[in-house]
Amino acid sequence: TSTWCLLRLAHDSKLQQEVFDELTESGIRSVADMTREALERSKLLHGIIYETMRLYHESVSMRKCIQDTVL
């Protein structure tokens, strides 16, 4: 999930800036400031993570063959 989320952010510089601005406004200016409470205040980042989980959920990316098929 984190890989897909980072890929989404990497392709959208405007979204990156919006997340950066929101985190800065939440008081996060360095890795040391990243507390659970501070990250929970970030509605945009929270939305991005949930949308990524919706689009790329485990059953899509973690498929496993359960039976060989001979054509």
Report on the architecture of this protein.
- It is built from 5 helices and no strands.
- It has 71 residues and is mostly helical.
- The mean pLDDT is 84.
Features:
5 helices; mainly alpha; 71 residues; single chain
Question: Topology of this structure?
Answer:
Elements: H1 2-10, H2 13-25, H3 36-40, H4 43-55, H5 58-61
pLDDT averaged over residues: 84
Distance between the termini: 34 Å
Helix residue percentage: 55-70%
Shape: elongated
Structural class: mainly alpha
Task: Provide the β-strand percentage band.
Answer: under 5%
Which runs of at least 5 residues are low in confidence (pLDDT < 50)?
A: none
The topology string of helices and strands comes to HHHHH
Quaternary:
single chain
Q: How many individual β-strands?
A: 0
Task: Describe the structure concisely.
With about 70 residues, the chain is mainly α. Helix content is about 60%, strand content about 0%. The chain has helices at about 1-10, 15-25, 35-40, 45-55, 60.
